[in-house]
Design goal:
The complex is a heterodimer of chains A (195) and B (891). Chain A is of the alpha/beta class and 195 residues long. Chain A has a single domain, classed as 3-Layer(aba) Sandwich (Rossmann fold), CATH 3.40.50.300. Chain A has seven helices and six strands; from the N terminus they run βαββαβαβαβααα. A six-stranded mixed β-sheet of chain A has the order 2-3-1-4-5-6, sandwiched between helices. Chain A is globular, with a radius of gyration of 17 Å. The two termini of chain A are 20 Å apart. Chain B has 891 residues and is an alpha+beta fold. In chain B, the strands form two sheets. A five-stranded antiparallel β-sheet of chain B has the order 1-2-3-4-5. Chain B is elongated. Classes of the chains: A alpha/beta (195), B alpha+beta (891). At the A-B interface, strand 1, helix 1, strand 3, helix 3 and helix 7 of A face helix 24, helix 27, helix 28, helix 30 and helix 32 of B.
Chain lengths: 195, 891
């Protein structure tokens, strides 16, 4: 049986850019009815296979309004990854994104995996943020970048697969053979904690 | 306690008690009908069950007690009726060797006859395995069968039969091979043992048993039993007994069920699986299955299968004084006499508190729902032996009386005769001397026998009910009044009943109960640790500087104690044998809540209140709550349906229930229900999914509407005390959100003040400052938020500019209206607001926000020249605007 690793992922970005739509799309497509659904869309989970492991994403949505900004550290604390969403039709939202990246670099967890999602790519007529800008920016900060459309289910899976790949696999010997019961226990705890 | 008061209480509670008895009686009736084997005891069994009704007015029901006393089981044991399960439970230090490595297992087993087994944890497979000695003709000497652990059960890999714990699994494979090549065989010495004392002797040897002379094999070891033919279903259970030469399984009458705790398991196979594997199961087991299923189906439809009556390790009554001593002990006078004499006796002999790591063999604690500790007074006090023996059964009764007294008499137990729960350390008791010569003495001294049993099992029953009624919907609800105080006689009668109930308990609950009992027992290191900490906290209010400090210390203590418990040998049998590995931490966490948070809840609440009153945060919260409550939802940023008055009342009720819980997990469960309700209202059947952008404002609104200051401490309690591993999950998320909502409310005033410049404005302003310091030196008024410089352009009169007061959320439509007034336009419908930028005109639609546009333009990396111009829609503006170029540049 594959080990399940719980990974906390937080969603950041301006209000209205489609943070929760992305997650709803991700979680509800190929919905596994065996997994008990969460009570609402602000917190959702989905388990995906990755190599020898199963990654269970615990996705924390944040409120994008400025007045909730001060609460954000409570949400991104302990995250293994952050998905920062902007709206390709709103230059403003791309500026907010940069602000979030900066904050995460300064105050976020170490080695947090950052993924930039340019949502609403179905509305390319109204595009304000060139793909090139986003790519260059993502490269400069070492983040994953994709343009997504929650509406048309474009690149949603890819976004999270990208995150999965960036998560370092558990140390094999930590998982492995030399442990008595005690070590086994510690392994489970580490698994929990690392997310 | 006077009998008058007690009788009054009896009457008070009789109604509900009758109901309970009725249920049980009908339950037992059904059991009877399903029973394959009937015997004469049936009549007695049913009378016994109803006897409490008759005995309500009788203060001294010795006769009944004697008859129904579970200790009668002692006689059973004397006639060699130890089941395989009992033998396994007693001797687990021999065969359950989790720390053994591959080589050591081979070493031990190769010299054993075929069929002999060990259970250990394979480091290679990272699993528990059953290592089985094979007959020589099989080629290899040893085969390992992996044990699969799911969330609730243990099973052999490849088999469809699951068991609640390891003991039941092994016991089953001793009589049925299922996926094994043949049935397991107990070492001869264990199989032949006739008394628990013999088994204890063997258990004391531990791993050394295998190499000791005790493990001498019978002259002609019988070959391991070959697969049973499938037609063996008709064979009766007696034949099964022969497999290992011991009594194994037989069906029970209700009377046996209630009074015997030492006999073989009623059914240790999950009946759900019986159909699949029935060919491997003996006929008697097959016949049992419908019965258990029935119980399962009617009584607790969704609960795990019923447990067999817990076997007991407790000492047997071998003394002929038995009956007299019981009679004596149950007389009120004698009770006290015995009690105090006993106490004196104890206090005379101080011995040190047991060390943290005890030898497994030393503690004889029995899990099965009624933990009984066998205390030993050092062998040098053999002189007291006689009286102690006499105390044994009497103690059980008088303890019950005392328990009843304790429950009904006083709330504060400082002055109570609480001789094992009080403050003084009972260091005069030692857990054990492990020398075998003291064994018979050992067995005659179960001092805390039934005290622990009845008291805690009933308390558990009550305590659980107030919590459990709020448990997740999957669990069956126990409808029971939590303030139900049982009169002592009822209680003594109920003891049997509770014994039956505890046999329905899941291993998890049994384990939690056992740990909770252990935490009350100051003779164990764990008990001392917990009790000392609890009383230290209660007595030293000044030891923490802040509420967070206090809660974090408690959390740390719980985590440390958990670690201790999972590694110490004080839990016997080891927790690994009863609880699947991935559940151990969960179970330990629940146990911690029960034995640490439950007694401390009141203290913690009082302290939190004190901290927040002193630091003024409650006052601040109170004032701000008032302010926020006066706002309408839109002012709080809520643009979705909100809970109405009725919903808010429902939510308040849930929050109030939350306050009664001591377990942070159960509190969180209620918080989740509140959030679920909020979502339901928000979605309002629209099917729309709402994320945090919408949810958090609504939650803030709801929290304000509930107007409960206590929520603040509730959230704090959960935030700090919840198992850290749960903080990343759904509970952790909504807890964070609730905390966020509360802190928004607490800082509402400050936020309002800061909002004079709107939030976006502040940010733009910051960016603006940055840009300004490089490009311009003096800011002009229109750069500030809330002001907008608008040029008015008429074809004839040229261009004039005005600075207007325009707030960030004013739409273009409103700005146009304002311009029409300011510039005295007669036909405003012909005019509109335009943005002139990059030499192009953009007409702004009515629903845009000019201030936002301005903010966005200002924040662009390359500053651009732009103007807001109010002008005629259809005029040709081009020449006009540039005619007034100078004017515009000063904007």
């Amino acid at each position: 049986m594959m080990a399940i690793r719980e990974l906390k992922v937080c969603l950041l970005g301006d209000t209205g850019v489609g943070k929760s739509s992305i997650v709803c799309r991700f979680v509800q497509d190929h919905f596994d009815h065996n997994i008990s659904p969460t009570i609402g869309a602000s917190f959702m989970t989905k388990t995906v296979p990755c190599g020898n492991e199963l990654h269970k994403f615990l996705i924390w949505d944040t409120a994008g309004q400025e007045r909730f900004h001060s609460l954000a550290p409570m949400y991104y604390r302990g995250s293994a990854a952050a998905v920062i969403v902007y709206d390709i039709t709103k230059q403003d939202s791309f500026h907010t994104l940069k602000k979030w990246v900066k904050e995460l670099k300064e105050h976020g967890p170490e080695n947090i995996v950052m993924a930039i999602a340019g949502n609403k790519c179905d509305l390319s007529d109204l595009r304000e943020v060139p793909m090139k800008d986003a790519k260059e920016y993502a490269e400069s900060i070492g983040a994953i970048v994709v343009e997504t459309s929650a509406k048309n289910a474009i690149n949603i899976e890819e976004l999270f697969q990208g995150i999965s790949r960036q998560i370092p696999p558990l140390d094999s010997h930590e998982n492995g053979n030399n442990g008595a019961i005690k070590l086994g226990k510690q392994t489970t705890q580490t698994t929990r904690r690392c997310c | 306690m006077s009998s008058v008061t007690m009788e009054a209480r009896c009457l008070e509670k009789r109604g509900s008690f009758f109901k309970l008895i009725d249920t049980i009686a009908s339950e037992i009736g059904e059991l009877k009908q399903e029973m394959v084997q009937t015997d004469l005891m049936l009549e007695d069994g049913s009378t016994d069950l109803q006897s409490p009704v008759k005995d309500m007015d009788n203060v001294c029901p010795e006769k009944k007690d004697l008859k129904g006393c579970p200790r009668d089981s002692g006689y059973d044991s004397l006639s060699n009726k130890l089941s395989i399960l009992d033998k396994l439970l007693h001797t687990h230090p021999v065969w359950l060797q989790l720390g053994l490595n591959d080589a050591e297992a081979v070493e031990i087993l190769q010299s054993q006859p075929p069929g002999i087994f060990l259970v250990r944890k394979s480091t290679r497979m990272q699993k528990k395995v059953l290592s089985l000695r094979l007959p020589n003709e099989f080629g290899s000497r040893l085969k390992e069968f992996a044990i699969k652990e799911s969330t609730y059960t243990f099973s052999l890999e490849g088999s469809g039969i699951s068991f609640a714990d390891l003991f039941r699994l092994i016991a089953f494979y001793c009589i049925s091979r299922d996926v094994l090549p043949f049935t397991l065989k107990l070492p001869h010495a264990i199989a032949a043992a006739k008394t628990e004392a013999e088994l204890e002797d063997i258990a004391q040897l531990g791993l050394n048993f295998w190499s000791s002379p005790a493990n001498n094999n019978p002259p002609n070891p019988s070959p391991p039993r070959r697969p049973l033919p499938s037609d063996n279903a008709c064979k009766d259970s007696r034949q099964l007994c022969l497999i290992n030469g011991v009594h194994s399984i037989r069906t029970r009458t209700p009377s046996e069920l209630e009074c015997s705790q030492t006999n073989g398991a009623l059914c240790f196979i999950n009946p759900l699986f019986l159909k699949v594997h029935s060919q491997d199961v003996s006929g008697s087991l097959k016949r049992q299955s419908p019965r258990t299923q029935d119980v399962n189906g009617t009584e607790k439809p969704r609960s795990p299968p019923p447990r067999p009556p817990p076997p007991s390790i407790n000492s047997l009554l071998t003394s002929p004084q038995l009956s007299t001593s019981i009679k004596q002990a149950s007389m009120p006078g004698t009770v006290n006499h015995n009690k105090y004499r006993n106490l004196d006796l104890l206090q005379k002999k101080p011995t040190p508190v047991p060390p943290p790591r005890l030898k497994k063999q030393a503690v004889s604690l029995e899990g099965e729902g009624n933990a009984k500790t066998v205390a030993v007074i050092r062998s040098s006090h053999n002189s007291v032996r006689g009286s102690e023996t006499a105390c044994d059964p009497g103690e059980a009764l008088c303890e019950q009386n005392l328990t009843a007294c304790r429950k009904t008499l006083a709330t504060n137990s400082e002055s109570l005769v609480q001789w094992n729960g009080g403050r003084q350390r009972l260091s005069d008791m030692s857990i054990s001397t492990s020398s075998s010569d003291s064994l018979d003495f050992d067995r005659s001294m179960p001092l805390f026998g039934y005290e622990g049993d009845t008291n805690s099992s009933l308390e558990d029953f009550e305590g659980e009910s107030d919590q459990e009624s709020m448990a997740p919907p999957l669990k069956p609800k126990k409808k029971r009044n939590s303030s139900f105080v049982l009169p002592k006689i009822v209680k003594s009668q109920l003891r049997k009943v509770s014994g039956v109930f505890s046999s329905f308990m899941t291993p998890e609950k049994r384990m939690i109960k056992k740990i909770a009992e252990l935490s009350q027992d100051k003779r164990t290191y764990f008990g001392c640790l917990v009790q000392d900490y609890v009383s230290f906290l209660q007595e030293n209010k000044e030891c923490h500087v802040s509420s967070t400090d206090m809660l974090q210390t408690i959390r740390q203590f719980m985590t440390q104690v958990k670690n201790y418990l999972s590694q110490s040998s004080e839990l016997d049998p080891p927790i690994e044998s009863l609880i699947p590995e991935d559940q151990i931490d969960v179970v330990l966490e629940k146990a911690m809540h029960k034995c640490i948070l439950k007694p401390l809840k009141g203290h913690i609440e009082a302290m939190l209140k004190e901290f927040h009153t002193v630091d003024g945060s409650w006052k601040q919260l109170k004032e701000n709550l008032q302010l926020v409550r006066q706002r309408n939802p839109q002012e709080l940023g809520v643009y979705v349906p909100t809970p109405d008055f009725v919903d808010v009342e429902k939510i308040k009720v849930k929050f109030m229930t939350m306050q009664k819980m001591y377990s942070p997990e159960k509190k969180v469960m209620l918080l989740l229900r509140v959030c679920k309700l909020i979502y339901t209202v928000m979605e309002n059947n629209s099917g729309r999914m709402y994320g945090a952008d919408d949810f958090l404002p609504v939650l803030t609104y709801v929290v304000a509407q509930c107007d409960m200051l206590e929520l603040d401490t509730e959230i704090e309690y959960m935030m700090e005390l919840l198992d850290p591993s749960l903080l990343h999950g759904e509970g952790g998320y909504y807890l964070t959100s609730a905390y966020g909502a509360l802190s928004l409310i607490k800082n509402f005033q400050e936020e309002q003040a800061a909002r004079l410049l709107s939030s976006e404005a502040r940010d733009t302003l910051r960016q603006w400052h940055k840009r300004r310091t490089t490009n311009r030196t003096i800011p002009s008024v229109d750069d500030f938020q809330n002001y907008l410089r608008v040029a008015f352009q008429e074809v004839n009169s040229g261009c004039t500019g005005k600075t207007l007061l325009v707030r960030p959320y004013i739409t273009t439509e409103d700005v146009c209206q304002l311009c029409a007034e300011k510039f005295k336009v007669d036909n405003p419908e012909d005019y509109s607001l335009f943005l002139f930028i990059d030499d192009t005109w953009q007409q702004l639609t009515e629903d845009t926000y000019p201030q936002k546009i301005k903010a966005e333009l200002h924040s662009r990396p390359q500053p651009q020249v732009f103007h807001f111009v109010y002008k005629r829609i259809n005029s040709d503006p081009y020449g006009a605007i540039f005619q007034n170029n100078d004017d515009n540049s000063t904007l």
